[in-house]
Specification:
Elements (H helix, E strand, L loop, with lengths): L27 E9 L14 E6 L12 H4 L5 E3 L1 H13 L5 E4 L5 H10 L6 E5 L5 H5 L7 E5 L5 H8 L4 H15 L4 E3 L2 E11 L5 H15 L4 E5 L20 H14 L3 E4 L21
Parallel strand pairs: 2-4, 4-5, 5-6, 6-8, 8-9, 9-10
Antiparallel strand pairs: 1-2, 1-3, 7-8
Helix pairs in contact: 2-3, 6-7, 7-8
The chain binds iron/sulfur cluster.
Iron/sulfur cluster binds next to loops.
């Protein structure tokens, strides 16, 4: 009997007949497959029809501001085998996808590895993660994943615990980022499209500006200021954010500018930033539809 320790939660449950914190057993469940252009523009080329995005059911984080907590921690969706997942990679590739964008993949790492060993797409494979990864698990992805698109949500576990139900986020996001860096020593572009490398995302939360600054310091320490970062302003209080008055609002222009000023001070040259107007639920794909739609 194999007990699950895929991610830093270490639930140690047998996923053949039960599920842990992530809410799913060991059968791959897909919530949605689509071509879309919501990701950073360097991930798709001019001729691409968007990112070939596969949204997996379940999540190993428990963000109180998640707009889809109930759905993201349920097993609602379409069950597929690794062979069928490999077929979906091919289908997206044939449909003109510029990459295979695996969203919230962590809890299905072993099954995704199996699928990627059946068929490794010719387009970049993106590991689009909340950053709550175990370094040992990231090691298994060497040679299979081309781009790490990882969140770095918090620099202080007190916030990670309060807002994402994790008491060991910070050490794991940092140590996993070091392994990602070992695998992807530099960012490689072909015709202005990133084909291998790392993008680190950080969504600025209201009030937690000092923590955002500490996150930028950590990214700088681990990857240096040549790293590609994405500083997001799109936070909208959703889910249970209303229970936490300090984060129950959008960020202010001053808060965002303060974080951007620190990125500038650290010398980050490759930073994606957003207009504050982008804080809208229009960025959120419709998860009510579970069927594959291309
Ligand atoms: S993948 Fe799921 S069951 Fe396994 S340790 Fe992480 S949260 Fe727990």
């Amino acid at each position: 009997m194999k007990l699950c320790e895929i991610c830093p939660r270490n639930c140690k449950i047998n996923r053949t007949d039960s599920s842990g914190f992530c809410g799913v057993n060991n059968k791959i469940i897909i919530r949605k497959v689509m071509l879309h252009k919501y990701e950073e523009p360097i991930l798709t080329g001019k001729k691409d029809k968007g990112s070939g995005t596969i949204f997996f059911a379940g999540c190993n984080l428990g963000c109180v501001y998640c707009q889809n907590y109930d759905v993201s921690h349920s097993n609602k969706g379409k069950e597929v085998s690794p062979i069928e997942l490999a077929d979906i990679f091919k289908m997206l590739e044939n449909a003109g996808a510029g990459n295979i964008d695996l969203v919230s993949p962590t809890h299905f790492t072993e099954q995704i590895i199996e699928a990627l060993k059946i068929y490794k797409p010719k387009i970049p494979v993106i590991w689009n993660t909340g950053g709550y990864e175990k370094p040992k698990t990231i090691e298994k992805l060497e040679g299979l994943v081309d781009i790490y698109l990882t969140d770095f949500k918090y620099a202080n576990n007190a916030y990670a615990l309060k807002y994402s139900k994790s008491n060991n986020y910070v050490e794991n996001v940092k140590n996993s980022l070091k392994i990602m860096k070992k695998q992807q020593m530099k960012n490689v572009f072909v015709e202005n499209k990133l084909v291998s490398g790392i993008i680190v995302r950080h969504m600025v939360l209201p009030t937690l500006i000092k923590d955002s600054i500490a996150v930028l310091d950590s990214i700088n320490e681990i990857l240096g200021n040549e790293a590609i970062i994405s500083i997001m302003s799109q936070y909208v209080p959703m889910g249970e954010a209303y229970k936490y008055p300090e984060i129950n609002r959008r960020i202010t222009p001053l808060e965002y500018k303060t974080v951007l000023a620190h990125a500038n001070k650290l010398g980050f040259k490759n930073a994606f930033i957003q207009e504050l107007e982008s804080a809208s639920s229009s960025y959120t794909p419709d998860f009510n539809s579970i069927i594959i739609d291309l």
